[in-house]
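Aim 2, interim progress. The first record below pairs a target sequence with its structure tokens.
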Amino acid sequence: MKKGLIAFALVFVSHFTYGQFSFGVSPGLSLNGAYFGYQIKENFVPFVSFQFLRGNIALESTGREFDWDLMQMVDYSYTANSSAGIYLPSVGLKYFFKNHNKLKAYGSLAITKPILSVSQEIDGDEDEALKEYVDGISLWGGEIGFGIEYFFDENFSLGGEFGIRYLNLSIEETYKSTVYNPNTGLDESANFEDSFSYSLNPSYTKISLNYYF
């Protein structure tokens, strides 16, 4: 039993003996991202990455209007605050399959679980219907790519990558409503469920700055 544990420990240690950490950023005009990985035996780099996009809108309106209940002109004020954000954490693997001088070709595969955050307040009251609708949205995606890195030295490289992304969006909504039954002449309560699915497969290109340490 001890010999088996020792052998397993030696294999585990040797597997990571030549490993090193890696960090990279992908600048551009679209979503920018960064990743952090661990290179194993010069060929494999499992990594995690993160991107996000967030925005806010604030509206405030004041003026005068005619109040039909009071039958007179009154001052009014209206405020609305909306915010939306999407967070894109990913896990993936990069594999270097060809080395030539300072060039290394690789393939990469990643899975992403987008997290959507949307909120809206009107005159200080949160829109609960919108919140419930967003909670019913499911998002996930992935990408597969091919790229080449040019190593200026052992620790720093500049890379270019081309690939295909996949994004799937599905929405499920359940609610209760009434349906008129002409046989009875009455409105009857019923449960309803709506589902919607959408997928998108865009290609992408990116340039990355990578540091191995």
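The second target in this work package is listed in the same format:
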Amino acid sequence: MKIQYFAPLVAALCVAAGCAADMNYNEYVSESRHGLYLYEDDGMSIKLCLTKKEAPFVADGICGKTGEMTEIIVKTPESCDEVSVTSQSFTGGDLSYLSARDSWYISFGGTLEGDEVKITLTCDGEPAEYTLQSVLTEGVMDCEGALGCVREHAAGLFEGLTENGTLNAEIFVRLLYDGKCYYYVGVCDREGNIMAFLVDGQSGKIIAEREHRI
């Protein structure tokens, strides 16, 4: 999977706009999915997410202490009774089956680097090797850039939630991929109201926004 992207000037301008504010709103990010590796072929779908996240994660409008974690979600073409994952990049282990999502899941502390990750996935004692490719390529902004674009677009929202130099909310920033990179940016206040934005990962354009509750 090789994807080439163009880096428009507007992305850099959005980052600058975010940094121009007196407050550093990045300090209120309780979840930041900053990396995403994918493999999909012949019915096998593997997603590896790199996230800096509050633990335990509670969407209560307050940003707690965060730490780096890696999450792996697997959907197999055939049913399996046991699934495990290993790699030279991490220790791995046994995955748990999530019936609601019809997928297998594991999470552990730490993060990774590089354009690809090689893993060995074992389903019912049958190992197979896979190479997951990073969706981040030249021209895609980072989480701080995406937040900067939302900060510029919805300045009134942030100003309304800011009191005495404190943001009375927490922020979620999640890297997404659907043919190209996007970011979900959610601002959650103390009452559980979330103002969510979908940001184009290249241009920084706000594609959609909506308000919902937890």
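Residues 1-13, 15-21 have pLDDT under 50 and may be disordered. This observation will shape the mutagenesis plan for the next reporting period.
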